[in-house]
Please model this.
Amino acid sequence: DQQVKQNSPSLSVQEGRISILNCDYTNSMFDYFLWYKKYPAEGPTFLISISSIKDKNEDGRFTVFLNKSAKHLSLHIVPSQPGDSAVYFCAAIGSSGTYKYIFGTGTRLKVLA
Amino acid sequence: GAGVSQSPSNKVTEKGKDVELRCDPISGHTALYWYRQSLGQGLEFLIYFQGNSAPDKSGLPSDRFSAERTGGSVSTLTIQRTQQEDSAVYLCASSLGVVRGLGETQYFGPGTRLLVL
Model:
């Protein structure tokens, strides 16, 4: 049972345009969400997070939106740069005190110069 | 550097052999996690340590997998009698571990690429 889903395995975007990466979840107990970026042969690195008490969090070119009623979050990158080309994972965790992060399968973003 | 380190970076082994993977977390991080990523898959949670104890072992795929952590620092993940389906990238992450349940940022190591022939 895939509790966190990234239905688009890949995405190509022109440099300077907006990249929108989507993530859906099924467990209503999740209340904290994170996005990680992964380059080949490296471990994932933390990008941005959002708590369920918010619907938007912004950090420079990166903005995460959370729609709790739809159990959907998205990561917007504006403007996209070639260095943003990587695999992006969303992750979720619940409020039960567990440390069990549930990760999606990732979306490979390619920003074309 | 002061990041999470893992060794070996690559490991090729024969089916049936045992392997041991090592993780050195960031100094002072009390929480440590093991994940694996099989080809084309997301990160699969294996086990979590808080200090030296493992309150959540639910992700270990079989009893061939075990992990320990000593001194609240280094952790080893051991796979006994390896099978070809164990081939994956094994990732370790650590976090401060003091803010329970609020999604602390995890810092990942570069991973160990395991290939079982």
